[in-house]
Amino acid sequence: MSRPRSTPASPITTPPSTATAPVADAAAVQDFIAAGEILGSACFGCGPDVPHGLHIQRTGRDGTTAFAEFTVIPEHQGAPGLAHGGLLATAMDEILGTSAWLLGRRYVTGRLETDYLAPVPVGSLVHLRSWCKGVDGRKAYLEAEGRLGGPDGRVAVRAAALFIEVPLEHFTAKGTP
Ligand SMILES: CCCCCCCCCCCC(=O)SCCNC(=O)CCNC(=O)[C@H](O)C(C)(C)COP(=O)(O)OP(=O)(O)OC[C@H]1O[C@@H](n2cnc3c(N)ncnc32)[C@H](O)[C@@H]1OP(=O)(O)O
């Protein structure tokens, strides 16, 4: 059996040669500090009012790299005693979105690729980190990981993603459900 690739990124989530290095936006950095007030409390990833949400806590940033953590509770279980894989993908999406936020524009997830490298037991504290590898027009190329046993512990889940910049109307326009 072949070893896991050193990066989770496929060609779609690998920045092209025309991509530029990400730059943290000063205003977004300020927003990051007050993120709870901006996002409200209903986000499944970070909202404090969602009973069985992930309750992800953002713990810091460095440039466009974002750090956060959350605890896997029994309601997050998939296979017996272990976190549901889709839920871990949600955690990846949240921390990726946080890194994209630091670019200072509005992005949504276009593509999310996830590798599961080790089981995540219920009760685990998962340390999340995401960083942007490059920006090319409306496209931002990001990676993320979730570690167990501490911020430098072993990687249990990792992801690569393509985020697409959208106008504000993307969130305010009412479509047909
Ligand atoms: C501190 C606070 C923290 C804040 C923290 C916040 C955390 C929350 C994070 C959660 C983030 C989410 O879950 S967001 C929710 C999940 N995502 C969504 O709902 C998105 C649904 N999809 C869409 O709305 C649409 O498909 C868009 C906006 C992604 C793209 O539509 P569009 O605007 O018409 O643009 P379009 O021309 O199609 O695409 C633009 C370019 O991107 C490429 N492209 C688009 N999608 C893909 C794709 N899946 N795979 C490959 N390539 C793609 C196209 O080929 C094109 O390339 P080229 O031809 O130009 O080369």
UniProtKB/TrEMBL annotation:
<keyword id="KW-0963">Cytoplasm</keyword>
<dbReference type="GO" id="GO:0016787">
    <property type="term" value="F:hydrolase activity"/>
</dbReference>
<keyword id="KW-0472">Membrane</keyword>
<dbReference type="InterPro" id="IPR029069">
    <property type="entry name" value="HotDog_dom_sf"/>
</dbReference>
<feature type="domain" description="Thioesterase">
    <location>
        <begin position="81"/>
        <end position="148"/>
    </location>
</feature>
<keyword id="KW-0378">Hydrolase</keyword>
<keyword id="KW-1003">Cell membrane</keyword>
<keyword id="KW-0053">Apoptosis</keyword>
<dbReference type="GO" id="GO:0005737">
    <property type="term" value="C:cytoplasm"/>
</dbReference>
<dbReference type="GO" id="GO:0016020">
    <property type="term" value="C:membrane"/>
</dbReference>
<dbReference type="Pfam" id="PF03061">
    <property type="entry name" value="4HBT"/>
</dbReference>
<dbReference type="GO" id="GO:0006631">
    <property type="term" value="P:fatty acid metabolic process"/>
</dbReference>
<keyword id="KW-0276">Fatty acid metabolism</keyword>
<keyword id="KW-0966">Cell projection</keyword>
<comment type="similarity">
    <text>Belongs to the THEM4/THEM5 thioesterase family.</text>
</comment>
<keyword id="KW-0809">Transit peptide</keyword>
<keyword id="KW-0443">Lipid metabolism</keyword>
<dbReference type="InterPro" id="IPR052365">
    <property type="entry name" value="THEM4/THEM5_acyl-CoA_thioest"/>
</dbReference>
<dbReference type="InterPro" id="IPR006683">
    <property type="entry name" value="Thioestr_dom"/>
</dbReference>
<protein>
    <recommendedName>
        <fullName>Acyl-coenzyme A thioesterase THEM4</fullName>
        <ecNumber>3.1.2.2</ecNumber>
    </recommendedName>
</protein>
